[in-house]
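Notes from the pairing session

We agreed to fold both candidates in a single pass and log them together. This is the raw record for the first candidate, unedited. Please don't reformat it; downstream parsing expects exactly this layout.

Candidate A
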Amino acid sequence: MTIPTVVDPPLTIDLGLRIHLGDQIAIGPGKAQLLDSIRRTGSISAAGREMGVSYKHAWLLVDSMNVCFRGPLVEAVKGGKRGGGASLTSLGIEVLECYRSMQALAAEAIRPEVAKFKRRIQES
């Protein structure tokens, strides 16, 4: 007979980097995820479904990003016989890559403090 062992949940650190422009969030974790999904699926609607949000909500997020930057991050093509679609502009790709780079740099910068923090977590 095997006796189940209790496994402590692993410690995870969620670094939620958000870039604000005035009272708007120009980009943050959710918007970056949306851009990744649009890049992969070629569709705002499909990207929204992947994230569990409506098309309207996904479109509002895209629109808010498009007005925060010097140009649009996403270009949408209206539907027709073959349906519509969406793609990241070159600026959208640059912004997403820059954001992901900032996330990686921030995670690396806090690595020593995370190690100290882990040593202070209560063990069960």
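Candidate B (folded immediately after A)
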Amino acid sequence: MLARRGDGPCRATAKKDEVAYWDLYDLTTDGLEGQTADAEAKARRILADDLSVAAAVVCPAMINGNTDTYKKIYDHQVNDWWTSLSEDEQNDIIANNPDWIDNLNGVSLAARSEANKNRLDAMKAEIDRQVKDFEPKTELQWTGRNFEYKNTSGYEAMLQRQKGIDSLRDTFSYSENPDKERIHSLLVLDNSGDHLRAAVGTGDIDAADHVLVYTPGMTTTVAGGLVTGGKEFGAKVDEAERIMSETGMPDHDDKNTEQVEETAAGVTWLGYDAPGWDETLTGSDGTVLSDHEAQSAAPDLAGFYDGIQATHTGDPHLVAAGHSYGSTVTGYASQESDAPDDIVVWGSPGASTVDASDLNTVPDRMYSASATDDFVAGYGRYGGNPTTDPESDFTPLDTRGHYEDGLQASAGHSLYTKAGTTSLHNLGNILADNEPDYPAPED
């Protein structure tokens, strides 16, 4: 929240906002008569009050002069503040104070991305120092045959953070190439959790007609899942982009042509501590056998959904999507946001509930895919099995092959987005705001 980012934003905007408030409030209605004058005066007061709210949000000290009073910052209020700034003021914050807006919902996603990328050099310097100073780096461990000195778990975790930051920095340096077919952005960057967290956008999220927010599951990490450290993005970003490609839509408007097309953009959201094998084998709170991490992640993902709605240039068709444990995160987040238009999960151990009303949607806007040999999808541990529960409001999707149409079956737990499969085709239908071509056959 801006209130937690020091008084810099307040100093930057308070004086201007105070002047603007009284300029609006004191404007006369000379030359206007009757109801027209009353309406004009009321409109100006509303605009002034809106500006006052934005200023109060940015600077809690402006609320009755009490710096201990904090108002909840709503995304649209943050957006009011951000859009009230001039382009030069916005650029100055992005360049010199990127931490004010780095992961702040309500600020345009394009601006957040530039701010986050501007933080990478400082984050690299900090993580390099932490890795160098970390102790103990090694300890004597039993390998099954003898004792050997190996890295401690804490040092391994620190190295994984370093690898993630280095990979983000390197991959995004390559992605600045203007000739690249895809536009990529860094929408979340957070090193405060048990793991490095991030989110990568593909396409023009702020303006696309259709927006996918895809949350991957267990063992997903920034390095590998989101970025490779080379010129290519990670495996989970590839999955989101295959769904986008299945729509047949570009991910951003081509400014070199006057042809108007619908666009489809996507976000691969890893803004949470995805459970890993270490957490699962040690039985910690972060184990995949608990929904602790999913519930903890829900407010952040719900806020991200709401932030897209607040900053978008129109009213996007927003699809909340999740695979495996990411579907559980998606379900809990959907209970806290009404921004998504469609919810789709695949390989799901449960999406927190099977009731549409709990997910702020209706039955014909929620879908679930489950391959016949996916044991995770048959689990139903977290809120029931979305595909097979008799009380489920999810529409089950077909994952069998439709070879007459050139579509293959999905096999196992991790191949739902494989090119040429029925399941990927259905996911593309849903992102394009169409009915899936292949619902699961009724028993």
